[in-house]
């Protein structure tokens, strides 16, 4: 994997020589199966606009042949294009940025965009086929996935480069991705929204408080917003390895540095904010969102603020119907709040 994109190589048994396998499209290979009694390999491939398919590697030709298996009933999106570019972060680091947009999009800054990211635990945001989100670019907008440090898209050094005392690097990466869209004419700050969840609350909340001028709106699902109070939450101790230990001086300093709640500034005009929680969330205590939202309202009373919760939800929606309803509200929020040209 490089920049979150999977590549397949085949090693010759005798020489050890590696040969790249030509991929039908850029994507992720989540499954691979072999049988010692049969030649070849079965593997899956999935792209931003292409549902998961299963291919058979023919060792004689080195080609991947479509088996016809996979998510064959999903809606096709022939009018959408995907593109892999890079943004330059504050320290000069090149950050992978994946885009999905209409093929006929005019790069005149008039499109509206959503930038999503996570940046924790070495989790890689790889290409995945998600029709609910694809309705956003299908409606004429831009969907961007910013592969910030803290994930694993470029190896373990990429993970450690955005963990613990380096959390701010991931936040800078996320802001850089939003600004890159403006540089390239895809959108402008007033028409660019940010989106993330869970550990991504540090990322989105940090970007929201660090550079409010870079965003037209922000939506966060079940976000961590107050890490200095880590151990006041039921699942807090589980986050110490990723963020820091508030029982130590060094740990408390790095937690304070990444804490979005601590960085809300009075008198700053913050963009519209949507905070989504599950009332019975056992991973990230819902008070994180309530406390952060109340602080933003106190600092910036004119900021439009929404809370969306469900008393049956834990950490995100637990069935497809609830999931679709939740994302309908999230996309409706961005549709209403991001300035139209």
Can you characterise this structure?
The structure is a single chain. This protein has 341 residues and is an alpha/beta fold. The chain folds into two domains: 62 residues, no CATH class; 258 residues, Rossmann fold. The protein contains eight helices and 14 strands. The strands form three sheets. It has an eight-stranded mixed β-sheet, sandwiched between helices. α3 packs across α4.
Q: What is the CA-CA span between the terminal residues?
A: 38 Å
Note the beta-strand portion. Answer: 15-25%
Structural class based on helices, strands and sheet pairing? alpha/beta
The appropriate CATH architecture of the largest domain is 3-Layer(aba) Sandwich
Identify the strand order in the major beta sheet.
7-8-10-9-11-12-13-14
Mean pLDDT level = 94
Low-confidence stretches: none
Q: How many whole angstroms does the radius of gyration measure?
A: 21 Å
Count of helix runs:
8
Q: Give a count of the beta strands, DSSP E runs of length 2 or more.
A: 14
Large-scale geometry: globular
SSE order, one letter for each helix or strand? EEEEEEEEEHEHHEHEHHEHEH
Would you identify the CATH H-level superfamily of the largest domain? Alpha/Beta hydrolase fold, catalytic domain
Q: How many distinct folded domains?
A: 2
Major sheet description: 8 strands, mixed
């Amino acid at each position: 994997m490089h920049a979150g994109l999977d590549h397949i190589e085949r090693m010759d048994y005798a020489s050890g020589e590696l040969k790249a396998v030509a991929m039908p499209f850029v994507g992720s290979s989540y499954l691979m199966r072999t049988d010692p009694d049969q030649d070849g390999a079965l593997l899956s491939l999935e792209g931003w606009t292409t549902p998961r398919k299963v291919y058979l590697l023919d060792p004689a030709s080195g080609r991947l042949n479509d088996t016809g298996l996979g998510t064959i009933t999903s809606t096709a999106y022939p009018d959408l294009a995907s593109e892999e570019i890079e943004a330059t972060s504050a320290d000069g680091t090149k950050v992978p940025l994946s885009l999905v947009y209409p093929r006929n999009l005019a790069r005149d800054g008039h499109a509206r965009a959503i930038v999503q990211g996570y940046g924790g635990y070495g989790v890689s945001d790889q290409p995945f086929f998600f029709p609910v989100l694809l309705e956003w670019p299908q409606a004429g907008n831009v969907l961007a996935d910013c592969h910030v440090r803290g994930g694993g898209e470029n190896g373990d050094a990429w993970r450690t480069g955005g963990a613990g005392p380096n959390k701010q690097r991931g936040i800078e990466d996320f802001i850089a991705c939003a600004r890159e869209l403006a540089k390239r004419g895809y959108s402008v700050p007033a028409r660019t929204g940010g989106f993330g969840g869970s550990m991504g609350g540090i990322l989105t909340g940090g970007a929201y408080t660090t550079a409010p001028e870079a965003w037209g709106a922000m939506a966060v699902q079940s976000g961590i917003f107050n890490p200095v109070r880590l151990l006041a939450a039921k699942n807090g101790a589980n986050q110490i390895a990723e963020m820091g230990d508030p029982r130590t001086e060094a740990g408390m300093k790095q937690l304070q540095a990444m804490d979005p709640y601590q960085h809300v500034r009075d008198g700053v005009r913050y963009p519209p904010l949507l905070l989504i929680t599950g009332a019975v969330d056992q991973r990230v205590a819902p008070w994180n969102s309530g406390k952060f939202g109340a602080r933003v309202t106190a600092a910036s009373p004119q900021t439009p603020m929404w809370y969306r919760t469900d008393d049956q939800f834990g950490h995100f929606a637990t069935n497809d119907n609830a999931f679709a309803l939740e994302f309908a509200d999230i996309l409706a929020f961005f549709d209403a709040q991001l300035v139209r040209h």
